[in-house]
Amino acid sequence: MFQKILIANRGEIALRVLRACKELGIQTVVVHSTADSDAMHVRLADESVCIGPPPSRESYLNIHQIVAACEITGADAVHPGYGFLSENAKFADILAAHNITFIGPSGDHIRVMGDKIEAKRTAKRLGIPVVPGSDGAISEEKEAKRVAAEIGYPVIIKASAGGGGRGMKVAHTEADLEIALQTAKSEAGAAFGDDAVYIEKYLQKPRHIEVQVFGDGAGRGVHFGERDCSLQRRHQKVWEEANSPALNAEERSRIGGICARAIADLGYSGAGTIEFLYENGEFYFIEMNTRLQVEHPVTEAITGIDLVHEQIRVASGGGLSVKQEDIKFNGHAIECRINAEDPRTFTPSPGTITHFHTPGGLGIRVDSGVYSGYKIPPYYDSLIGKLIVHGRNRVECMMRLRRALDEFVVDGIKTTLPLFRDLVGNPDIANGDYDIHWLEKYLAKGE
Ligand code: MV4
Question: Which CATH entry fits the domain spanning 207-446: 1.10.10.10, 2.160.20.80, 3.30.470.20, 3.50.50.100?
Fold first, then answer.
């Protein structure tokens, strides 16, 4: 097992990882920018190293500073959290070259999944169902027309170096295709320095369902069920749940089994998320994320398994603590992302939190790095906490969530809490009847 882990992140996830390290008896080092000297994770860590000024480029993304912090403190592993360097293959390679363990998959696995064309090709080869479309990159209009005619309109053109919704163009008819292809290519070239694009059938009303997987790096793979993350705004998830209200146990076990086998065959190590669009009872792979995700606590709530403990165990060579047959799905969990934003315009609202009171009681978890008197710096993303609620079934979970939202107090700044108080009373949400466009349509109506 590791002696000392360096946490290369900030905010609630730095605290989340720190807690897991403490439970496992592992020493902790955190790195932070000058804007985060008062952060909770800095106060609670055994050691801290200031690695640079507020801009992420110069601190949380500064590989040399982070490696130097490992050398100075004698850390033998790095947990990257999510965002920042968590899916940076070069970072994983550099750590490996320094004999420091990156708590995550190999640089090569990160690289494959970061290239969306390569990821899709790999998924298909491993028996995962993918969205119908081109087998590789498309550059000629003629080729685009041929593929589109074959799969049928509407089609979507995506950047291979994109992901998470960046660099996509929809073509409803052949007349739209040329412009869509050219703008997708030039936007991809400008944004990512790589103009490779591919074509897929455009699914019009899917849900976003993602399967949590784990590999032990030695040919074993398991799945921890799925999360439904359809409630999003501008590709930012707002509300996530496990299980998906749309799936039954048979569908869960079928798609989960396919994903677990693929992860085993790939020789993948650590946590991963296989993202699907789900429409008319069918799953279509879109992307794979090679990191721990923001919404992992809903999976922890229904399985009772600490996924960060599992990451650390696997990375240290100790293997997974569970076999597939040990993983049971109990009840229902919902996560609300509390952002320091205006609940209508989503404009960031940094500043001082004058009062912070979190809900408690059975089935309630709050993951947050803020406290009364804490000043939210303006440099980073606006997530200030996550409310995760568990119940024996979805109805109980929703009742408990409504109560927890009533108890939650954040004064001094604007937050997205009022949005959740509205959503929890909405009939479509109560019925679990929503797709990836539901939230944006709801917000456009503007009550
Ligand atoms: C799609 C799609 C429809 N058809 N692909 C957006 C984020 C990126 N991960 C993939 N995305 C989409 N890909 C096909 N073939 C619709 C989206 C999409 C979306 C997906 C998940 C959650 C929210 C979304 C909002 C708009 C579009």
Answer: 3.30.470.20
User: Does 32 sit in the ligand 1 pocket, CB within 6 Å?
Assistant: no
Mean pLDDT across the stretch 375-404?
Answer: 98
Question: What three-state secondary structure class fits 286?
Answer: strand
Whether 291 is catalytic:
yes
Mean predicted confidence (pLDDT) in 62-78: 98
Cα dihedral value 300, 303, 306, 307, nearest 10: -70
Residue 167 token pair:
């660099």
Annotated catalytic residue, options 16, 207, 220, 291: 291
pLDDT tens for each residue of 299-309: 999 999 999 99
**pLDDT over 70 at 1, yes or no:** yes
Q: What is the mean pLDDT of residues 11-40?
A: 98
Percentage of the chain modeled with pLDDT above 70? 100
DSSP structure string for 98-133: TT-EESSS-HHHHHHHHSHHHHHHHHHHTT--B-SB
Q: Say which residues have a Cβ less than 8 Å from residue 246's Cβ, sequence separation at least 6.
A: 207, 209, 228, 278, 432
- Map residue 164 onto helix, strand or coil: coil
Position 447 scores a pLDDT of: 56
Please state which CATH number belongs to domain 4-103: 3.40.50.20
Domain ranges of the chain: 4-103, 132-201, 207-446
pLDDT digits (tens, 9 = 90+) for 278-320: 999 999 999 999 999 999 999 999 999 999 999 999 999 999 9
Strands 409-411 and 355-357: antiparallel
Overall fold of domain 132-201: Dna Ligase; domain 1 (3.30.1490)
- Global pTM reads 0.98
Query: Given its phi and psi angles, is residue 128 left (phi above 0), alpha (psi -120 to 50 degrees) or beta?
Result: beta
Asked if residue 120 has its Cβ within 6 Å of ligand 1, the reply is: no
Ligand 1 binding pocket includes 156 (Cβ within 6 Å): yes
Nearest atom (ligand 1) to Cα of 440: 25
119 in contact with ligand 1, CB cutoff 6 A: no
Ligand 1: centre distance to CA 306 (Å): 29
